[in-house]
Amino acid sequence: MAVHSVARPEKSPAIELSNGSESISVRQGLDGADGAAVRRRELAVFLRTRRERTSPSELGIVTSARRRTPGLRREEVALLAGMSVTWYTALEQARDVNPSTQVLDALARTMRLDRDERRHLYRLAGAADDAVAEECHAVSDQLRDVLDKLDPYPACIQNGNFDLIAYNSAMRLLITDLDEVPIAQRNCLWLSFSEPRWREHIVDWEHVAARQVANLRVAMAQHVDDGRWKALVARLRAVSREFAELWDRHSVREVNAAGLRQIDNPIVGRMTFTVCNTWVAPGSTTRLQVLLPTDPHTLERLTTLVADIG
Asked: Which of 48, 94, 103, 213 could make an SS bond with 246 (beta carbons 3.0 to 4.6 A apart)?
């Protein structure tokens, strides 16, 4: 009996793609019908369907009537998630890439994935279960209505590590235009320590920043093995010596239900608020934060700020 031998194609050379400080290796060619290849194809389809489902208007993207692309374009996802178009395209093309938990988290937030979708995303990407955040980044329509109706009072939804999950018009413009910040960077701690304008416009920034770090230290106790939380701390330490010094003090403070805050807005000037935090469910670290004006001048300036949105 003759035995016919089929030569296997040699592996194609790897292509290096860059995602900021993170580089990945993409292996071209046939991977075979193994489990990893199947998961990559499933991940590609899942990302495409979630992208096409996401409305540009929900993310502040103005579109024309002639637009034919359903949902978001690839370049829009990449921009909002803080990664290169090439990098994101590799995921949708089922290339052999390994996205970090930071990348997965940014994609989940950009595409407004709910808890089940988020876990599915991580499983398809082969991420460890402990890297999946307990907080759900999807915000209900009812809660979004609450945010809208609170205008001109600045209001937002934050999770335990200070990610800004949703916000209204007044909060958007309180310090800098949050819509111009990539979704992966919409984190109050990250902005406080990496964005000079936040330091400039938050009155008594040193006290506020120290308090935030102490709040994060308390919350971190429940997430010491969570890759996403550890990545946030590592990024903050790398970008800010001040954060590293505050973190190493091991000071702890719970997030208060209320407190005072002053903001020097670049458009309307100084405003003073009572910061009120309300947790969305018992035991949850996700909270609704509302800044209530403490005087008529602050309310007048807020009204002007929101009215100027065009």
From this structure: 213
